[in-house]
Write a structure and sequence with these properties.
- There is one protein chain.
- This protein has a single domain, classed as DD-peptidase/beta-lactamase superfamily (Beta-lactamase).
- It is about 30% helix and about 15% strand.
- It contains 11 helices and 13 strands.
- The longest helix is centred in the first third of the chain and has 18 residues, at about 1-20.
Length: about 375
């Protein structure tokens, strides 16, 4: 978790330097044929020796899925298409969508203070909803202190509502409204705001707003204390199986479980406009160069890719929790998305702005008509 925070801070600084200039328009025409592009993308993942699951999907509904390697090395159980995965911080992308639905309904204002919705919040009640979405709250950071035991706790106090009366209501690390700093408490507080505004718990809200309307198999919060949160894959690092956490402690920041195909269906709904008004989606996907292209729950930025004639607008959400890494990347103008889960916690993805590395090669294969020399770093 701390590695992820440091990596994202570096991304923010480097992307600002590399991409601050206005980008050329997205490449004209459609994305390359799905059959060819998905096969190339799968080959990149296979060549990297990455265990996990990959889905490449188009907005019209077509998709291709692939599974690789072992979910449980000790038992010899393979990863399988359609198995449940820890969604990690893609949960934040879902939470941000639920918040923006309430903005659409006029029940939440992005620039209203959190105290308007949580008058009993014990922390800084002047933090705005927008600042929480953009990681500019100054709230205490549970990932900054590995010795705190935050992610191994259990009980009622690990719910989003419990955290707003506990750890996340503690002394602020700095004033709100300042620089970007990654923090799970931001989205746990947003989870409590959603419960207060809608009268529904997080799982019930996901069921009502996403699962039933989209016909999903059922992303849901991890059960408190369940082994690996109920996911099929065990996480492994360079020295073997990683220490297990209680995935349920991630709350509205990181505790959703679901299939890769369900996430691909959500990507299609995000692209197709089935979840938010055009105005709300545009706000959610407007990356701020001053914040390393952080938008609302996602990063949104132009990226040069291998084989694309011009920079491609990407909407990205990544996660790293409980031994699982996830990459969810949408290219709105191409009508295509890539969903990748791996239970290799030590896998190095690199950064798109470096014009090399695993993420760069995967996205070039999926989005560009003529990528060459993939996986040559």
């Amino acid at each position: 978790m701390q590695r992820n925070k440091l990596c994202l801070n570096a991304v923010a600084a480097a992307m600002l330097a590399a991409l601050a200039a206005p980008a050329a328009a997205d490449p004209g025409g459609a994305a390359p044929p799905l059959e060819d592009a998905s096969a190339r993308t799968a080959e990149v993942m296979r060549a990297a020796g990455l265990p996990g699951e990959l889905v490449v999907t188009d907005v019209a509904g077509a998709e291709r899925s692939f599974a690789f390697g072992l979910a449980d090395r000790e038992a010899g159980t393979p990863n399988r298409i359609g198995q449940p995965w820890i969604w990690a911080s893609v949960t934040k992308q879902v939470t941000a969508t639920l918040v923006m639905q309430e903005v659409d309904r006029g029940r939440i204002s992005l620039d209203a203070p959190v105290g308007k919705y949580l008058p009993a919040f014990g922390g800084n009640r002047e933090i705005t909803i927008r600042e929480l979405l953009q990681h500019r709250s100054g709230l205490p950071n549970p990932s900054a202190d590995a010795a705190s035991g935050f992610y191994t706790q259990s009980g009622e106090h690990i719910t989003d509502r419990g955290r707003t009366a506990g750890f996340c209501a503690g002394p602020t690390a700095k004033a709100n409204g300042g620089d970007w700093e990654y923090n799970n408490c931001d989205y746990m507080v947003l989870g409590a705001v959603l419960e207060a505004v809608t009268g529904l718990g997080y799982d019930a809200l996901v069921e009502e707003r996403l699962v039933r309307p989209l016909g999903l198999d059922g992303p849901h919060l991890a059960v408190d204390g369940a082994a690996w949160g109920g996911a099929a894959a065990r996480g492994y690092g360079a020295s073997g199986r990683v220490a297990e956490i209680n995935v349920a402690t991630g709350g509205a920041a990181a505790a959703l479980l679901g299939t890769a195909r369900d996430l691909a269906r959500l990507d299609r709904a995000w692209m197709g406009g089935g979840l938010l008004s055009a105005e709300a989606r545009d706000m959610a996907w407007k990356g701020d160069p001053a914040l390393g292209f952080m938008a609302l729950g996602v990063w949104s930025y132009p990226a040069g890719l291998n084989g694309c004639a011009a920079p491609v607008h990407l909407v990205e959400r990544r996660g790293d929790f409980g031994g699982t890494q996830v990459r969810n990347v949408i290219a709105p103008s191409l009508g295509r998305a890539v969903v990748l889960f791996t239970n290799d916690a030590s896998a190095e993805f690199g950064e798109v702005w470096q014009a090399k590395g695993l993420t760069y090669d995967l996205l070039s294969a999926a989005f560009c008509p003529d990528p060459a020399n993939l996986r040559e770093d």
